[in-house]
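Final report, results section. Input specification for complex C-07:
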Amino acid sequence: MVSLFTLDLELIARIIAAIAAIVVAYLIGKLAESQIRKARIEAPPEIVYNIARSIKLLIIVIGVFAALSILKVDLTGLLIAAGFAGIVVGLAAQQTLGQLFAGVALIVEGRLRVGDSIRIGDDWGLVTSIGLLSTRIRLWSGEVLTIPNSDVMSSKIYNYSKSIARRSNITIGISYDSNISKAIDVIKRVLEDKELVLAVPEPTVIVDSLGDSAVLLRILFWVPTQGYWTVIREIIREIKEELEKEGIEIPYPQRVLWLKTPVKIESSDSSSNHESG
Amino acid sequence: MLFGEYQLLDKLEFEIPGGMLVLERTSGNNVRISKIAGELKSSKLTSLTHDSSVVLKAVPHLGGPVSSQCVYVVLPEPIVLPEGARLQYELKIPVDLGVFLGGVLVDVIPLGKVKYALYGPSDLGDICRYTDARVLESYGVHVARARVTLRSQSNNRMEITKLIIPVKDATVYLTEENELYFSDIDVNALSPMHVEVRVGAETSYIVLGRLISLLKGSGALYVMKHGV
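Structure output:
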């Protein structure tokens, strides 16, 4: 009875020690991860992030092995079992492994970096983290989108942070009665006045097409990436204001109707009747 | 003249192209530097460390809304460099206003309107401050004169229409005649796709078919790889 009680106590002590080993390993891992993330390392953030997480995981695994050793579990048998289990898990977790390899490829290739402004599919946003399994993007609307790395690898990505300048393409319609040359001069003056519209490549204003209701002018100009959206917003507003000031009309959609038979149109403020046809 | 040394006791106001520059002590050693252009006001807070002296000096292009380390100069007329030619030339380069407090550069303010240009493709090129004859005439900028030496080491005749000038290590100095001068510029044209522009140093030479760079002192180098 006494020996059974002693055995129980010893087992309880071992269990407590094993749990303590795991908890300590977890805390050390977490501390290591946090210190590595805060450390001044000359490396891209996504690499630092993944190294920190891998080190945390490694320390926790060491802690688990230490706990198993404290519990006197035969690790040799466990490792052999783990080998077989690895094959089974490998077959079962093909998709996860695919994402893992895609994650490594993504980091090595450098297609994306943390902080890049990107468009992937229909989603626009800022890359906030590139993990081994998934990539997180903070959308401009504020939501955080998590995409499996295999999907990121197979998607078309527009990376706006790779370019130092972007070309803007705006179409504005002016009425058929307006003077096209004057409108082009007004638009060019607005573009030249803006400091952030690049002088080279030179801004271009062309008559793009003759639309249903307006002569469509296409305005092409380059802007440094960092000020792109601000400049676009200001330019569109200023072009509209300047065109109005110069008496150049931006028309509403119009239709010219030709009626087969004449129609009488009665005016409310005059007694005379008009005929149209 | 705007450039010079001043004592900041309470408040200093300067007229600059397109607005006003105001330096004022706020409390203790804190100094507010404000640029007022019409209704727009932008300001920065800094501290005056050693003494109350404020020095306004002409500095190379470093200020403005976009960070750039080069000036894109469109030459008033193309320069034709025959094989092995050497040519001396003088350029006018716009300069900014450097605000030094206690000998430390604390702010760079563009004098006059600023325009930028993209040299090269958008993913490999650089955004530089832009200047051409029109900018010099109508943008109210302050300019410094720069002596440019152009050498051709190309086997063909070359035509140069623009220069990209690095400004990182460049200096601007005021002569006794109150004229602003920019660091000397050396242009070494090896081919239309490899033109070296070095500021404040000697350029490289091809000796026995090998490129050898000879430096007189520290200098900034820009290699024009996207055409001249």
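Residues 99 and 107 of chain B are 5 Å apart (CA to CA). Chain B touches chain A at residues 64-66, 72, 113-119, 122-123, 125-127, 130, 132, 135 (CB under 8 Å). This concludes the modelling results for the funded period.
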